[in-house]
Amino acid sequence: MSTFGFMNRFSGNGEIVSKKHLSTLDTYTKGKITLWRNNTRLAYMPDPASLVEVAGAPGQLNTWAAEVNTSSPWTYPKAGELDSMNFRHFIDQRVTLSNTCLVLTTACKAIFAAEPRQLYLLYVAALIAIKDGAQEKRVVGGTDLIPQTLAKKVGSEHIVLNAAVSTITKIPRDYKVVSRAGTVLAKEVVLAMAPPLLRQITFSPSLSTSRQQLNQEMEMASIEKGIPIYSTPFWRYENLSAQIHLFGAILGFILGDEMRALDKLTPAQCEEKLLADYKRYFGNSATNVTEFVLQRWDLEEWSRGGPVAVAPINVLTLYGSALRAKVDGLHFAGTETSPYWTGYMDGAIWGGERVAKEILQY
């Protein structure tokens, strides 16, 4: 299984963090990277030929990325060509070494939680066109402090949780929003969720044709999180670079096909399989857990997958312009709407700020 140790990270350019007087720390990256390859644990150092090929394979992607407008990649003159070729085909065409293929495939799954065959080059080129990193900083105390501090400012009496919206109806002057918690009237409605989740809501009148098609065609990636907790961070003593700070825990993501392979297993069976993997990666010490946390986003009502919705063949070219386009008083936010770091917290914050300005200027 593919497991990666990162959590609570963002680019460090988040103005909202400084405004809320939160502290940050650099992501821990010291030590060697562990690679599981051909049933062998390696302190990862690829052979020189693989390094050359890995560096060269993105060359054409970088050329496209330099020309793509991240705010509207569908306007790129070669958008139709890129949006009809998946990343798997690109790798197969340009990669000859198995190690290079492994690195590019693993990177694809780590970033998107999707297999290379699920991603099309226009989507990939738009993402790599972005400068700086999205995982170089962490918030001291956890990133949940961001929504907590925002909630305090808004006031808990104005926030309703666990109340899925079922219908949104336009009436003469307002929108009638019906949820499990009751009915709310509003002049403007912000929909900060992945496009596929909008299919769970009935709109009257219907959304624009392009927006409906976008919601229908985009699909959630597949991801699960398994966190074994230990009394001490034993991997540090072996000079491994699992990117965790302060306490003894390893956050592992199970992605793409590996995630779907676990669909029929119970939580206990998932834990057993994951701990067996951790033992192979990090030795016997990895089985001495004090607690195990399992989060299956594919089965979670509020996300149904993640971390981001991906666009299949030709979807961005045909319907991408509907991503951020408001429909009367309906405004669309969420990380998918961001031209910067789609799928990351930075992207989600950018989407929220854009919509807030949109409403104030409306």
UniProtKB/TrEMBL annotation:
Key word Transferase present: no
Reactions the enzyme catalyzes: a secondary aliphatic amine + O2 + H2O = a primary amine + an aldehyde + H2O2
Residue positions binding substrate: F253
Domain of life: Eukaryota
InterPro entries linked: Amino_oxidase (IPR002937), FAD/NAD-bd_sf (IPR036188), Flavin_amine_oxidase (IPR001613), Flavin_MAO (IPR050703)
Cofactor: FAD
EC number of this enzyme: 1.4.3.-
Gene Ontology molecular functions: monoamine oxidase activity
Enzyme class: oxidoreductase
Family that this chain belongs to: Belongs to the flavin monoamine oxidase family.
Protein name: Amine oxidase
Lineage of origin: Eukaryota, Fungi, Dikarya, Ascomycota, Pezizomycotina
